[in-house]
Predict the 3D structure of the following.
Amino acid sequence: MSTDTAPWLVVGLGNPGPDYETTRHNVGFLVVDELAGRARGRFSAHKRARAQVAEERVAGHRAVLVKPMAYMNESGGPVKGLADFYKVPLEQVVVVHDELDLDFASLRLKHGGGDNGHNGLKSLRRSLGSGDYYRVRVGIGRPPGRQDPADYVLRPWSGVERKELALLVAEAADAVETLITDGLERAQNRFNS
């Protein structure tokens, strides 16, 4: 499934800065933080891309964990820069992101697909020239009533959601590890809820 020389590029999508730290849109950051923590790794600024990176082993495989330090709608540039720098083929890119169209605490893994209005995915498609990378979609649910989805994703987790968040993040990190070690089909069989 992977080449021998290139690492996996595991990208958590989010927005930089303390104002966004606890928002639903930043669940991708939480998942790569979890993966770095499991490897006892630390993020540091990359010299050539606006991103925080941690070069670690994920489930025994070389990986570069990434938190783009550009806003969501500009995250493609840093990801493209890192993919070029580390010579990572598109088939070894995993993107972890929030998904409105999935119930809170559900996961779906897939390869390729549309952007579904997600500004981070749109930016990645523009910069990478394709949407053919792996996705770990973390369900955050739809906004209540007539709340604007853009407003909803930038709101903090509810009290009920916060109680389940650590478990959701750990499960999404498990899904990334399974995808890398066992491939998409096995990961889907295990985690697509």
User: Anything to note?
Assistant: Residues 8-191 form a domain with the Rossmann fold fold (CATH 3.40.50.1470). Residues 159-182 form the longest helix (24 residues). Residues 105 and 164 are 8 Å apart (CA to CA). The chain has one domain: 8-191.
